[in-house]
């Protein structure tokens, strides 16, 4: 009787081993895996909220490649990143783009742009120069505006042209 049990157990082990080998071979042959495929949606519009600094044409050009049928959540993330890169390329380093809701409704995806602005510009340590004049010579840092860091660099270089003045951000 123990031989009968041994044979059954041996047969079950052999069957289990054979099943594992077949599964491995299918996986190696490129058979579809058990992972679900990403959900495909049709995206016909990106509604971009809060974009005030860039022209509409540049915003549209950034997200346009990610429109169309059969898109995934990865495509939406790429559109978000592309818009953020467009801002950064223009010198707007204080801008963030987020996806408030990942659901596509009627083919429309919303992207929210947060443009960080200059809250307050302070000039410290100015003994010989008028503080308001120094601020006026740095228009890229006007309070309430989105700073263009390319323009900020130019303004600082211009402010430092006088040999007895040193301006640092």
UniProtKB/TrEMBL annotation:
GO cellular component: type V protein secretion system complex
Pfam family, one: POTRA_2
Keywords: Signal
GO BP term, pick one: protein secretion by the type V secretion system
Keyword ATP-binding: no
Region forming the signal peptide: 1-27
Record GO terms (molecular function): protein transmembrane transporter activity
Family matches, as PANTHER family: BLR6126 PROTEIN, SLR1661 PROTEIN
Name of the molecule in the record: ShlB/FhaC/HecB family hemolysin secretion/activation protein
Organism: Telmatospirillum siberiense
């Amino acid at each position: 009787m123990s031989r009968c049990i041994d044979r059954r157990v041996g047969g079950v082990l052999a069957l289990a081993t054979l099943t594992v080998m077949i599964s491995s071979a299918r996986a190696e042959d490129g058979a579809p895996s058990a992972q679900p495929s990403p959900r495909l949606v049709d995206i016909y519009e990106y509604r971009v909220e809060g974009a005030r600094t860039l022209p509409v044409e540049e915003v549209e050009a950034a997200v346009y490649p990610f429109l169309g049928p059969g898109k995934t959540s990865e495509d939406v993330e790429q559109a978000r990143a592309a818009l953020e890169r467009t801002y950064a390329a223009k010198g707007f380093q204080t801008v963030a783009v987020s996806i408030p809701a990942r659901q596509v409704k009627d083919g429309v995806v919303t992207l929210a742009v947060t443009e960080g602005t200059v809250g307050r510009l302070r000039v410290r340590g100015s003994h010989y120069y008028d503080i308001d004049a120094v601020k006026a010579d740095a228009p890229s840092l006007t309070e309430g505006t989105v700073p263009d860091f390319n323009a900020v660099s130019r303004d600082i270089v211009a402010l430092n042209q006088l040999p007895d003045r040193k301006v640092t951000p």
